[in-house]
Design goal:
The chain is an alpha/beta fold. The chain has a single domain, classed as Flavodoxin domain (Rossmann fold, 3-Layer(aba) Sandwich). Strands 1, 2, 3, 4, 5 and 6 form a six-stranded mixed β-sheet that branches. The longest helix is centred in the N-terminal third of the chain and has 15 residues.
Length: 185
């Protein structure tokens, strides 16, 4: 089994990455091979709207997302992580999601093999847990419908500001790790 983490936070020591790593650690304990992609450290553009991907099997752009899309195709599980910045996922994550248009056919059927497991990780400074519930629900629908993934869990760290602060929430850390352990159950 292979599980990849896709981190949309610009902070490698941030709360989002801490939770993504907990899920990956849990998956690794069950024997999964894991790898993390930090979108902020990658060089890529957004979708150019050229529709090359609708007549071909891949995006026309050849950049750092080319390898990530290859890994995404071969992974059994994917952990998507992004903090909420200004009411939405980070620009890094949104730019990546924009390019996921190349992962669907012209008839909107998915190109990725069905049956992949997914986890959505989010963090937000806002203390209201429901404040951005719609953002996570919409994203869950997109990866379920367009990528044919089974969303196993959505974990959101609420009210955290300082990088790594989420480590003090033992209940949330345990939940994230257990999600990784049980990803394929």
């Amino acid at each position: 089994m292979k599980v990849i983490g896709i981190v949309g936070s610009p902070r490698t020591n941030g709360n989002t990455n801490v939770l993504v790593q907990q899920v990956l650690e849990g998956a690794a304990e069950t024997g999964a091979e894991t790898r993390t992609f930090f979108l902020n450290e990658m060089n890529y553009k957004g979708c150019q709207g050229c529709n090359y991907c609708k007549a071909n099997d891949s995006c026309k752009l050849e950049d750092d997302l080319t390898e990530l899309f290859d890994e995404l195709a071969s992974a059994d599980g994917v952990v998507f992580g992004s903090p909420i910045y200004f009411g939405q996922f980070t620009g890094q994550m949104r730019l990546f999601l924009d390019r996921c248009y190349s992962l669907i056919n012209a008839d909107f059927s998915p190109r990725l093999p069905a049956g992949k497991k997914a986890v959505i990780i989010g963090t937000q400074g806002a203390p209201d847990a429901a404040a951005f519930k719609g953002v996570f629900a919409e994203f869950g629908g997109q990866i379920s419908n367009f990528m044919c993934m089974d969303v196993k869990d959505t974990i959101v760290g609420v009210g955290y500001h300082a990088p790594g602060e989420v480590k003090g929430d033992s209940e949330l850390m345990e939940r994230a790790k257990n999600t990784g352990i049980n990803l394929f159950n």
